[in-house]
Design a protein that fits this description.
Elements lengths: L17 H9 L1 H9 L9 H18 L6 E2 L7 H13 L5 E9 L2 E11 L8 E7 L7 H16 L4 E9 L12 H4 E5 L1 H22 L22 H4 L15 H9 L16 H8 L3 E2 L3 H5 L6 E10 L13 E11 L5 E7 L7 H12 L5 E3 L3 H12 L4 H9 L1 E3 H8 E2 L9 H8 L13 H14 L3 H37 L1
Parallel strand pairs: 1-2, 4-5, 8-11, 11-12
Antiparallel strand pairs: 2-3, 3-4, 5-6, 7-13, 8-9, 9-10
């Protein structure tokens, strides 16, 4: 879609926000499209939306660390009401902190996560502490840029800042029974000095953004490294719609070398010099032909029957709910096991803990029983092994059983990566890419849940949020179908790869 001509653009540039400012730092073209053509953005997928929802939840929990704090009730759409409400609350000395306080200065409207009143001596001016809350586990450059624009607005609006701080999740915190210790759950760091230098750059950066927004067309910025850092740009599909299938940036792996090739005028993967140092995967993408290793047949025949095909689903809670767990610790809640006998007979067993209680003992005991003592256990990553290794550290009584299970693991992922390639992979060995290429009749498009991040989000909603039993049942069914698809996929991948290996030997 062509940009609107200058005459139809707003005569006054729409107000910026802290999120728009960060977008402009990432890419001026992204900012332009967000402001003038937001309809061109790709709707966030369910995993991305789950991350956004997690941030909202963390923000709500963080407020409990400031007893007596008051939330500015006016919505983001009610700008004037939010500004008025904020001013009234600031004048009330009995309010120790404001949440979602609204401020407007220099054409930038912000809502502050936490604005804490700093106690002052009688007669001294009121000072404030600006606190940004993040669901991440460490400080990132983008957080400092976020705080730079916020402090610029607050200072311009006449506030006196005692400190600029970032509050994020502390993964060292081990939750015990009872109330969550908010002082331990969150790490509060003073980043005043780190933000200072960035705040000095804000006026010039705002000037560049406004100049860009006044143009009749978006700036001619080619897709590149900036599209993925610090966030995935929602306009990637729009900006790359006219790029050929063999566009150089579609080469997997590090994009720094790709950027250098692009600077030399190389725009297609096929134009990469034969002498270029490429990884095995990059070389196969460049060759763009189906490839089968001569060793594939023998490797596939190394399995011992009955072959178990195993997949785990976990939930990573930012605010722990189970004793002796940490924030974002992977808690196993579900497994699927497709068991193939040597005759070809297939049996499916599964488990899903659907209660808001400690899941790991029930999960482990059911899994141990299902896997039995015999047969290879096919997985498609090292994740299952790592989950079991972590679990026995908390429940040592399962160590012997899980050590035996771990010895039987047979990982299909490195077998595919090292011994087979199909151009339809597009350089990705994710099972979501590999399955439809090797087994065209199978995929995930027909499922309500289509990937792990979405599964974790839906599990959380089913167990801890949703109260309607009909909706709970629907989510449970979707989770079971998704996990079962992962293990059935491994069954069919093994069979299809075996067929290709046999064809090679003919």
């Amino acid at each position: 879609m062509d940009a609107e001509p200058l005459a139809t653009l707003p005569a006054i540039i729409p107000r910026l926000s802290k999120s728009k400012f960060v977008s402009g730092l990432q890419c001026l073209k992204r900012l332009y499209l967000e402001m003038h053509h937001p309809q061109l953005a790709t709707t966030p997928d369910l995993s991305t939306q789950a991350i956004l929802d997690m941030g909202t939840e963390i923000g709500a929990v963080a407020r409990r660390r400031f007893p007596g704090g008051v939330l500015v009730a006016a919505s983001h759409r009610r700008r004037e009401a939010a500004l008025t409400e904020t001013a009234e609350l600031m004048r009330n000395a009995a309010v120790p902190a404001l949440f979602e306080a609204a401020f407007l200065h220099d054409g930038v409207l912000i809502r502050v996560d936490v604005l804490e009143r700093v106690p002052a001596e009688s007669g001294e001016p009121v000072r404030w502490r600006l606190i940004e809350v993040k669901s991440s586990t460490k400080i990132k450059d983008v957080h400092l840029d976020d705080l730079a624009i916020q402090s610029h607005v607050l200072l311009g609006a006449g506030l006196s800042l005692a400190a600029v701080c970032l509050m994020h999740i502390n993964t060292s915190y081990v939750y015990k029974d009872g109330e969550v210790d908010l002082a331990q759950l969150f790490t509060l760091q003073d980043v005043t000095q780190a933000v200072l230098a960035r705040r000095a750059l804000v006026p010039d950066r705002l000037g560049a953004m406004r100049s860009t927004l006044l143009q009749p067309d978006p700036p001619p910025i080619d897709p590149g490294l900036q599209c993925r850092t610090p966030y995935e740009c929602p306009f990637w599909n729009h900006c790359t719609a006219d790029k050929p299938v063999r566009w150089i940036y579609r080469l997997p792996g590090s994009k720094h070398q790709v950027t250098q090739w692009a600077a030399q005028g190389i725009t297609l993967i096929d134009e990469i010099p034969p002498s270029a140092a490429l990884s095995p995967t990059q070389r196969r993408v460049k060759d763009n032909v189906e490839w089968v290793s001569p060793a594939l047949a023998d490797i596939l025949q190394s399995v011992r029957y009955p072959v178990h095909h195993l997949d785990f689903e976990t939930v990573m809670l930012p605010v722990p709910k189970f004793s002796s767990t940490r924030p974002y610790q992977a808690i196993p809640v579900q497994w699927s096991n497709h068991i193939e006998e040597e005759s070809g007979e297939l049996v499916h067993r599964e488990f899903l803990h659907d209660l808001a209680t400690e899941p790991r003992r029930r999960w482990a005991e059911a899994l141990i029983e299902s896997l039995g003592e015999q047969g290879s256990i096919c997985v498609y990553s090292a994740y299952e092994r790592s989950v079991m290794e972590q679990l026995v550290e908390v429940f040592p009584e399962y160590r012997s059983a899980f050590n035996h299970i771990i010895k039987r693991l047979w990982d299909l992922f490195p077998i595919v990566r090292d011994h087979y390639y199909h151009p339809a992979f597009g350089g990705s060995y994710s099972i979501k890419s590999v399955l439809p290429a090797i087994v065209p009749s199978m995929g995930y498009d027909d499922l309500a849940i289509q990937e792990g991040g979405q599964a974790a989000s839906e599990y959380y909603r089913m167990v801890f949020v949703e109260t309607d039993w009909i909706e709970q049942a629907a989510i449970k069914e979707a989770l079971l179908r998704y996990c079962a698809r992962d293990t059935l996929a491994m069954v069919e991948l093994r069979r299809a790869l075996g067929e290709r290996a046999r064809n090679l030997s003919l």
